[in-house]
Amino acid sequence: MSKRYDIAIVGTGPAGLSAALNAKIRNKSFIIFGNNELSNKLAKAEKVNNYLGFYGKSGSEIRDEFANHLKSMDITITEEKINNIYSMGDYFALMVNEKIYEATSIILATGVNFGKPFKGEEKFLGRGVGYCATCDAPLYRNKIVTIIAYDKKEEDEVNFIATVASKVYYLPMYKEKVDVVSSIEIINDVPLEIIGDEKVTKLTLKNGEIITDGIFILRDSVSPGQLVPGLTMDKNHVQVDRKMKTNLDGCFAAGDIVGVPYQYIKSAGEGNIAALSAVAFVDEQKKKQS
Asked: Where is the FAD/NAD(P)-binding domain positioned along the sequence (predicted)?
């Protein structure tokens, strides 16, 4: 049987990190999924003046402080992208392609940097549409792959796919200069719709179309409603109460994902509350079982 964690945290911005610190302090077994860079949004902030005790620091300086704090508490980040989370009754199953993680409770802290899904994206998820190119690379050996990316940092992943696939089309959705291997065909166009039968067959663009076996959409995060089926949303945000509880038992959310104001100090505070709520939930479940 795979290990079942008390708490799984998705996201490594201030909300997710704050939740992890509190899970650690309360001696709960937990796993935190995200990025060792922690938060792109934070790293790009020029000056942060509204975070108590961090006056006049740049976002990257604060990020470094966060990283030091994690290191001092021996918290490691699992650099994997969660595709879906399913409520299984008394636990949650977190899907990372062919891998499944289990947790009694979950805390969603993925921020709001997700775009609106493309037409056909949700329909073909797992049937030619994916969010992690390196994870699914073996499935596309000698096949045609199209990658849509929203951040220059994804170029390494794109170059890696080019070593496996027979052909790679690349649609960069960012402003910086594109620097990928020469075998990759760069297409500067706007993706509109993903089309297929049982599986993906093509991507239609504003000015044409691409015949393709698979499409990877590399954005920072997927919409929470898409990530966790059955979650109650309020427009783009997850609906929570004062204890950061969602409509799903054992599922909590914190940070930008639950609404404005989008401020780091607010996110960190909510991550703290979400962790305490998750700890109380886990203790309650253990009491019931014993």
From this structure: 5-142
